[in-house]
Amino acid sequence: MTATGTSSAPNATAQAITATGLRKSYGDKVVLDGIDLAVPEGTIFSLLGPNGAGKTTAVKILSTLISADAGGIRVGGHDLAADPQAIRAAIGVTGQFSAVDGLITGEENMLLMADLHHLSKSEGRRSAAELLERFDLVDAAKKPASTYSGGMKRRLDLAMTLVGNPRIIFLDEPTTGLDPRSRHNMWQIIRELVSDGVTVFLTTQYLEEADELADRIAVLNDGRIAAEGSAEELKRLIPGGHVRLRFTDPAAYQSATSALREAARDDEALSLQIPSDGTQRELRSILDWLDTAGIEADELTVHTPDLNDVFFALTGGANVPNQPKKAVR
Ligand SMILES: Nc1ncnc2c1ncn2[C@@H]1O[C@H](COP(=O)(O)OP(=O)(O)OP(=O)(O)O)[C@@H](O)[C@H]1O
Ligand SMILES: [Mg+2]
């Protein structure tokens, strides 16, 4: 599956990153078994998958740090096989494990990055100062990075990634270990980057993070892309969505149960669950049907599966807890 743009503007579907038939094995362990990816410019793409699925491997390959066994890759308009150097110049990478050097200060870490990007002394200082400010690290800038908290190190990591203004950034689990507020701050920063037109390739263990941020999500499992789409599309892929009707009058509940034989019953809660994909069309037909049958519930709620359900369904094997709430059959 590939991303499909709805706009007809010429650049609307320009791809920042594409990979076709990407393969990588370590010994006889196949990590990536021929995966295809396409990330349109200025969007956030999230790669999800259980531990060991190959997310970091994919990031390292796409960012030229390790080579693939096979596959075609283009990043920022450059072919990886032909011109990896041009790709390196166009991207920024925040690895899963910190690139921060603890022995030197936050500011010195930033200036080191500026040097690596061949910025002039004054340009390097300007860029470092601006990013330290943006990431709320001014007070800590002159202290050794080893004294930073995990969240501060993560912010410094991302600040270092942004030196040189890369148009495409790879973030491998950027918020792992951050507290909820720091995570939200990081999300805000990522959104600002994207609104400036930056493309973000993100891996995460936090499904709500992908849900919040990503335009498109791919779930990596067993070396392949098990599913790809927007969060909404993925949620519709798996069962678990339903409409719940709750009654207060036992007599009304009883008559509803005899009219709706297919619905799952919860006699204690006087409620019925009708499987539904949650689309407007299906809701309308359920409502019409209830009207025709003369059923009037006191409460009607629509439940759509969340990304956790999707993740378990796609990566967990057969026994899928896709209805964590009590579902009576
Ligand atoms: N240099 C290496 N040599 C041998 N095996 C490796 C190497 N790097 C990764 N692997 C293996 O490749 C698989 C994928 O690893 P990878 O780090 O890409 O997973 P991941 O999806 O990023 O996992 P996590 O969520 O834990 O970060 C794992 O089985 C790992 O053990
Ligand atoms: Mg990883």
From TrEMBL:
EC number: 7.6.2.2
Entry's Gene Ontology molecular function annotations: ABC-type xenobiotic transporter activity; ATP binding; ATP hydrolysis activity
SUPFAM superfamilies membership: P-loop containing nucleoside triphosphate hydrolases (SSF52540)
Protein name, entry field: ABC-type xenobiotic transporter
Subcellular location field: Cell membrane
Keyword Membrane: yes
GO BP annotations, alphabetical order: daunorubicin transport; doxorubicin transport; response to antibiotic
Span of domain ABC transporter: 17-247
Main localization, broad class: membrane
Protein family per UniProt: Belongs to the ABC transporter superfamily. Drug exporter-1 (DrugE1) (TC 3.A.1.105) family.
Keywords, sorted A to Z: Antibiotic resistance, ATP-binding, Cell membrane, Membrane, Nucleotide-binding, Translocase, Transport
